Amino acid sequence: MTALLEGRTAVVTGGARGIGLAVARTFVSHGARVVLGDLDEAAAQAAAKELGGDAVAVGTRCDVVAAGQVQALADTAVSAFGSLDVFVNNAGITRDATMRTMSEEDFDLVVAVHLKGTWNGTRVAAARMREQKSGSIVNISSLSGKVGMVGQTNYSAAKAGIVGLTKAAAKEMAHHGVRVNAIQPGLIRSAMTEAMPQKAWDQKMSEIPMQRVGEVDEVANVALFYASSLSSYMTGTTAEVTGGRFV
């Protein structure tokens, strides 16, 4: 198997579990060194150890809403491994409620983590990458940002915003050799989705032409494509990893 990221360093926010950890694991399998940022520092460090320890992975605490902490995350990549070549903005939370019952605090928090967090990561990564005239930024949006989901006015707004941010940043950074793309996962198997009521699960499954749930590795493989030179002439694009749901 060709190592698509040999010699490159990647940062993954929300990297301690779920899609973020799957992305990091896939990147390491293709020769990358990774820095995992997560609110749960212990989990990030445990994940880094699982991936191979200090030689290939570092785990550290990062609140993506705080620009200084995102800058420190990027600096860690450079100090630990000598470069910053890929930045995956994956960190996210949900605070679902109908618009009538959603608190202003829960709206603000979700938008801050997803949208401002992605802006912080994109901005910090782009500043470093433009100096070396190369780099790939991958932003994790969601199918909710394409179609809107009941009970997710905060999440859907933030995830739609990530697509707009990605397109604008891609135009700003293209002549610097930096690419910016987004991924919109659909129903992906995780502890959160498997805890859904059966009725909700069945409803979502009925909307998927491929008639199955997606796996975190299937999202990670698309992140690998965007991170690598396989997508060298792609920027400002959005890949739907949805099994055909809502095409």
TrEMBL record:
Leader peptide range in chain numbering: none
Keyword Oxidoreductase attached: yes
GO molecular function: 3-oxoacyl-[acyl-carrier-protein] reductase (NADPH) activity
Keywords: Oxidoreductase
PROSITE patterns: ADH_SHORT
SUPFAM superfamilies noted in UniProt: NAD(P)-binding Rossmann-fold domains
Domain of life, per lineage: Bacteria
SMART domains documented for this protein: PKS_KR (SM00822)
Entries under Pfam families matching the protein: adh_short_C2 (PF13561)
EC class (word): oxidoreductase
Keyword Oxidoreductase set for record: yes
Residues in Ketoreductase domain copies: 8-191
EC number(s) stated in the UniProt entry for this protein: 1.1.1.100
Name of protein: 3-oxoacyl-ACP reductase FabG
The species this protein was found in: Pseudonocardia nematodicida
